[in-house]
Predict the 3D structure of the following.
Amino acid sequence: MKKSILNLGKALKRAEQKEISGGVGSTCFSHADCPRDMGCCDNGPYVGLCMLGSDYRNHCN
């Protein structure tokens, strides 16, 4: 089980997280966990990152 969870996607470096999420490295399990105007991505390698609307549409849909 642990191996399957760890292999969900590649880990992003902090710089990559900032680039994708506009500087907010927030983690999430659902949209409710994210700051206003952000969505929780559920597509790898961005699984569990809060992203701004345009980034969310580009990387998570």
In short: The chain has a mean pLDDT of 75. The helical segments are 2-6, 14-21, 53-60.
